[in-house]
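[[Encoded backbone]]
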Amino acid sequence: MFDLEKSIVNWREEMRAAGIGAAVLDELEGHLREEIEQQLQTGLNLPAAFGIATRQMGQTAALKAEFSKAGTTIFEQLKQLAGTLAGTHRYQLAANMNTIATKLEPRWATYLKTAAFIMPAACLWVLSCVFILPKLQQLCVVAKVTMPGPIATAIALSDLLRQNLIATSAMVLLTLILLEWRAHWWPNYRRFVFGTVMFVLNSGTLLLITALLIMAVMVAAHLSGEK
């Protein structure tokens, strides 16, 4: 019968033999246990969950190299700063290209943070689509001003998203449910994916509002010239 505690003790001995200190080992063991729990939630049995978790922690030599480099170079400090700004600073890439989660953020925390950061941009986008864009399009017709290609494209994409918002939201929700249910690797990349999505959506909203402001200035200038 598989003995998890004995297996973890053996794993610690291998790590210690590779030169990894006790303080780092204690932290790694905590992350290993978290990863085992994540794997068990996907339906794997305990031996398989332990095997996948230890592989995802990386090979002994790779772990040793990563921890020996951590925080010792300007490059590492810049990389950590960039990760912090992107909301993914707790994730590192081991030498064997396995992702090591120095701490897996709870799923509820990731989803709540994402909703909080996206909500302002979403509200601005809805207000722009409902109140600003229709009026601006009317003014363009009155002033006989043609929207430049990039601005027209941005507005068309916004309209397309608005018209298919329910279907798009349902697809996203279904995808997330499937990822949480079936994809054992998803917890390691969840925070990075949501950080990237937040950046893209917020940037897109800012670009749309900027395009509307540019068009408003163009229409106002044209109407003032006619007077």
